[in-house]
Write a structure and sequence with these properties.
With 313 residues, this protein is α/β, with parallel strands linked by helices. 28% of the residues lie in helices and 29% in strands.
């Protein structure tokens, strides 16, 4: 059996359970492509899977290769694949119920892969799928955000947040973002009209009547967000809705995001990138063998943009 280098976990736990080792190389099944991985994005779902927080939902089997953001080159195609061929540069969100992209090769459903943005390298393309799709689906599929509306984005400097700010501005919306003072300039440069330092002031003291809230934080931040929405507004959360009845009490909607692969949306996002309307921000690039360090950095908080693992040139 052909082998490859990969980062695998044989049990749930801290970053130390991520082991860089030899693993069986996957094959492309029917409707799939085998991707020669060049880069893999690192996302909060990666460490939540590693820690066991999603074990009842995803029911993974060990050993498991984590990481579901991928950018690379099609190595081989399975039966029934007509939209891609060997040599095509692709990126996309892998099926989170299967092995991921912390490896030299990954099997992917062909329908989930999109062609890599023309003017971006694999590192920046790998920073896109999970976070960019989460932002896009939150703002446009769930919040139905439109031009002229106002959106409050919590965690505006983070992986999902920095895309959400850019997408909302492209749509013609007014953007209010919360961030630390260290990241305020960064969020402003992304296009936010107003940036609130959540460490120095309460956003609800200066914000009211917004059409939508994108909550990427949860907890007390979500609890305080209900009161800043206008009647008929919507709160979309990537971390779940803790009190669904709050929406009814305030006369608004609530939506919990479950990000899903969508190649057609990735194509639209790639087009915005190619014309310079959206920019993926990569804060740190680490070798695949340093996946544990990447998880430590992400869990420590305060990272703006994305962390990406470089698999090959």
């Amino acid at each position: 059996m052909a082998t490859m280098k990969a980062v695998r976990m044989h049990s749930y736990g801290g970053p130390e359970v991520l082991v860089f080792e030899d693993a069986p190389r996957p094959e492309a099944g029917a409707g799939e492509v085998l991707v020669r991985v060049h880069a893999a994005g690192v996302n909060p779902i990666d460490w939540k899977v590693r820690a066991g927080y999603l074990k009842d939902w995803l029911k993974h089997k060990f050993p498991l290769i984590p990481g579901w953001d991928v950018s690379g080159v099609v190595e081989a195609v399975g039966a029934g694949v007509n939209n891609l061929k060997a040599g095509d540069e692709v990126f996309g969100l892998l099926d989170t119920s299967r092995d991921g992209a912390y490896a030299e090769y990954a099997a992917a459903r062909a329908q989930d892969m999109a062609r890599k943005p023309k003017y971006f390298d694999h590192i920046h393309a790998a920073a896109l799928p999970v976070a960019a799709l989460a932002a896009w689906q939150s703002l446009f599929d769930l919040a139905k955000l439109s031009a002229g509306q106002t959106v409050l984005i919590h965690g505006a400097a983070g992986g999902v947040g920095h895309y959400a700010v850019q997408f909302a501005k492209w749509k013609g919306s007014k953007v209010i973002g919360t961030a630390s003072s260290a990241n305020a300039k960064f969020v402003k440069e992304l296009g936010a009209d107003v940036v609130i330092d959540y460490k120095k002031s309460k956003f609800e003291d200066s914000v009211s009547g917004v059409d939508a809230v994108l909550d990427l934080i949860g907890g007390d931040t979500q609890e305080r967000s209900w009161r800043v929405l206008k009647k008929g507004g919507v709160l979309v959360s990537s971390v779940g809705i803790s009190s669904p009845k709050k929406a009814t009490e305030h006369g608004v909607r609530s939506e919990a995001l479950l990000v899903h692969p969508d190649a057609s949306q990735l194509v639209k996002i790639a087009e915005l990138i190619d014309v310079g309307r959206v920019k993926p921000v990569v804060t740190k690039v680490l070798p695949l063998s340093d996946a544990a360090k990447a998880h430590e950095m992400l869990q420590s908080g305060g990272v703006h943009g994305k962390i990406v693992l470089k698999v090959r040139e």
